[in-house]
Amino acid sequence: MGEKPLKILACGDVEGSINAVFNRVRTVQKKSGQFDLLLCVGNFFGSSPEAQAEWQEYKSGAKKAPIHTYILGAASQETTRFFPSADGCELADNITYLGRRGVFSGASGLQIAYVSGREGRQDPTPAHCFSPKDLSQLVEPLISNNQFRGVDILLTSQWPRGVWQYANSPEVNTKFCGTTSISHLAFKLKPRYHFAAVEGVHYERRPYRNHVVLQENTQHVSRFIALATVNNPEKRKYLYAFNIIPMKSMEASELVKQPQDVTENPYRKMVGENTLSDPTEPASQFFFDLGKKQRGGGRGQGGRGRKRPSDGDGQNQGQPWDPDRQTQPSGPCWFCLASPQVEKHLVISIGTHCYLALAKGSLTPRHVLVLPIGHYQSVVELSSEVVKELDRYKMAVRTFYKSKGQRCVLFERNYHSQHLQIQVVPVPEDKCTTEDIKEAFMLQAQEQNMELMEIPEHTDLKQIAPPGTPYFYVELDSGEKLFYRIQKNFPLQFGREVLASEAVLNIPERADWRECKQTPEEEESLSKQLRNDFQPYDFALED
What we know:
Elements: E1 6-11, H1 18-32, E2 37-40, H2 49-59, E3 69-71, E4 87-92, E5 95-99, E6 101-105, E7 111-115, E8 118-119, E9 129-130, H3 132-143, E10 153-156, H4 180-189, E11 193-196, E12 203-204, E13 223-226, E14 239-244, H5 252-255, H6 268-272, E15 347-350, E16 354-358, E17 368-372, H7 384-403, E18 406-414, E19 422-428, H8 434-447, E20 453-455, H9 461-464, E21 471-475, E22 481-485, H10 494-500, H11 520-534
Parallel strand pairs: 1-2, 2-3, 3-5, 7-10, 8-9, 10-11, 11-13
Antiparallel strand pairs: 1-14, 4-5, 6-7, 12-13, 15-16, 16-17, 17-19, 18-19, 18-21, 20-22, 21-22
């Protein structure tokens, strides 16, 4: 979108007054033109019968939101029933639940970090609460990148404790307001705008610095805005409109401009103090371990988080999700290497944790699959050892393709599939550029009303797609990554259709693998040829 600003609305606790907030949005848009997004913090749903009836109209499709609306998860136990899963999903037309925690990044490059619910002080963490692990899994992949400057927007339901330091005072009892863990989160993520709610008041803090004057390079300022409850009798402000150009599209000199009323950072002193010994602040602990080697064999933060079951499905309640423990297939699996169903004549290379195979009904003669030997459903469920070998295979195939003058395109569809398959397809360099391939994916997604978002380099897939989330993912030879969180009715052949299209390989007749079937003899001959060609790049032969 270049330098064109995005027009965004932020809203406080809706608490079931859905008609009221959307009527207000229509009024604003009539006066100021169409906005791009509505971001809702705090409790979106209400528990009264009237509020439930109002929601039903949107859920059934009888009414539609007038703007793309993104909401946080439950901030109270009573409203958890409105969220079918801990993972983000579309709840109604134009109304999307972001998820428990993560980073949302649209085609414009705008980065929105979010954490749903309140701070949990018990284990296991209730469904309407976040845990220290949730926060560390959000923060660590971002700040571990030395190019990280901050996020554009941070959405939390709770306030950061002490945000009023060095600034104007809010109309709340500051003794009981906010939580230290959100203060640490805001300090680390350096949001340009931070929105919160649940206190029932409007409070717009003066902007604060993210650098120490004369000691650090000048950085952008942060603005904290708390919003009141929709339809509150005191007429306090609950809707906030603003324009923003994504940080990645701004000149550094423009980004770091300091307004006249800027203050010191309200959290710096708090973060500098060691609060580990304070048993009343358990969630603040996670920040003091960032950057240190984690316990448990040095696994990444995504390694041993809990997989939260969907609300209403109590079968796995309280069971820790462990990537080292493979799930068992519910029936015969065509891709588990030990399974009698596997067509072993298609196998090209076998490593310790993964294997490479010719794709059945391949798009081109060198179209391969990288698969885990054990039964895993998606990349985000893999242990660090499996991920490491998966990456080695990806790198080996990339190098192999490059030697043949071909670009490497990888994609994964975690939807209507029970065993992880990374599809790896070569595209001749003289056919099209990487930008052409990216554009083909973007345009075809747009035509099917899907928004493929670009994942920033420093964002881990596990961070935006917790285990159990249906998604489609593409990796280009430039290292650029595209992601779509599947909501419903996703075309199963989408990846193949894009690559087979006129804009890329120009073989539309091969878009469906079932139309490309070969005899076992033809497959065996092709596999043998590929096995021989790939041999110089096959690290499994050396290990």
